Structures are given as C-alpha cells and as structure tokens.
Amino acid sequence: MTRSALIRSGIAVFVLVGAALLVPLPFGGRASTALGDLVHAPLFGILVFLTLWGWQRLSAQGANADQIDMNWRSLVLRAAFVGTGLALFGIAMEFAQMQSGRSGSKHDAVANTLGSIVGTLVYFATLARKTKRRVVPGCLLAFAFGVWCFAWSGPIGLLADVVRMPNEFPMLASFESNAELTR
User: Fold this and answer.
1) Does the pLDDT at position 103 exceed 90?
2) Which residues contact residue 168 at a Cβ distance below 8 angstroms, ignoring those fewer than 6 apart?
C-alpha cells in the first residue's frame, strides 16, 4: 500500500467513525444501550492499534515496510501521543453526541479511553513479540484483557439485569444495584 493510499484510508476510517458516533440510534431500551456500550472499547482499541501500525508503516525505511524501528523511546512517545489523542477524540465525541441527538455518557468516555489503552498495549505486545521476549507480550496481553474486561463490566452487568428482570417480575426494582435503577 502506498503512502498516500494509507493516509487516505486512515482519514476515511476516522471520518466514518466520527459520523457513526454522531448518528442518532434508531432503537432504544436498556439492552440495546448496553450492546451499544460494548462497542466503544473495541472500537477505540482497534483505532489506536491501526493508527500506530499505520504510523510504523509510514516511518519504515527502504523497501521493507515491515521493518520495526526498535527505538523504544520514540515508540513510547508515539504511542502516548496517539493513545492520548484518540482518548481525547473519544471524550470529544461524547460531548458532540449531546448536540447531535444522541446522549453522551461518562461510561462511554471511560470505555473509549480504556479501549485506547488496550490498543496501545496490544500494539506493544506485537512489537515485543518480534524481539523474542516471550514474557513481555504475554504480560501486556493479560493486562490488556483485564482492562478490556473492566471496560465491559458495566454493560455486561446491565445485560445480566435485563436477563434477570423477567424472573423477578413483578418487582420492578429493589434499588440494590445501579442496573436496577435503570429499570
């Protein structure tokens, strides 16, 4: 893929993601909201990973585009810049959603940020794998999985309550959990 094609593809992805995050959702309800919330962390994780991968491809020297620049200091600075930038983009999108007919939420902003962290960790795990250090990639992936699970804990709890709710009918809510407050 040529340099200009890679840049055009990246811009197209960001425009599509921005538009998708601003379009009002045609459905409502607790289950659909929770399912939508499950998308935020993976979406931003993939965005960060692909941005870092694309930047690496653009900065590769010579004909070998898969060459890895093992200047870890520059890689960490690059990852911090991309991760922070996309986390801020995710937070800004939540504010923009309030103006576009969708409801922005703190949970989504946190999930976007946690997804950015996961994408950065997975990127470094793939780089560390190429250095033949076996322990580091596994630790990074395990930590990334833990962060991902934390990001999904709220929506999964809400989906579990949606499943439990018919069995607890006619009790609308006992107000024992945050999920019950949304009933």
Assistant:
1) no
2) none
